[in-house]
Amino acid sequence: MDMLIFTPPLNMAFFTCNNVLSGQPLDEAAHKAWVKLPPTLAVNFAVWPGIQVVTFGFVPLQYRVLFINVMCLGWSAFLSTMASDADLKLAAVSTSRKYEADE
């Protein structure tokens, strides 16, 4: 339940803040965040339920915090990749559309 309520706005805030701190205007940053949100949520909803099953079903109690921290490290790497790679993909799409319009 918490994934459905908190994940979309938190991911949107992450991408928007990342773009704004990179010097983009707020409206452009929000648009890019909106474009990045669906694929990020798709991966999130595919990965985290399995991690939770493993955590509570198989990982001994004394290792759960360590396990979740390692998984969060991987998730942070994924979010960073989405934040940077998605910018490149958006730029490529934007450039190709501009090039097609110029022809």
How would you portray this structure in words?
This protein is mainly alpha-helical. It has helices spanning 2-21, 26-57, 64-102. Helix 2 (26-57) packs antiparallel against helix 3. The longest helix has 39 residues, at 64-102. The protein is elongated, with a radius of gyration of 17 Å. The model has no long low-confidence stretch (mean pLDDT 88).
Features:
103 residues, mainly alpha, elongated
Share of helix among residues? over 70%
Q: Which class best fits the helix and strand makeup? A: mainly alpha
Question: Could you tell me the strand content as a percent range?
Answer: under 5%
What oligomeric state do the depicted chains represent?
single chain
Largest sheet: none
Treating each run of at least 4 consecutive H or I residues as one helix, how many helices?
Answer: 3
- Shape annotation: elongated
User: Quick check: average pLDDT?
Assistant: 88
CA radius of gyration: 17 Å
Poorly predicted segments: none
Distance between the termini: 49 Å
How many extended strands?
A: 0
Summarize the structure.
This protein is mainly alpha-helical and 103 residues long. 88% of the residues lie in helices and 0% in strands.
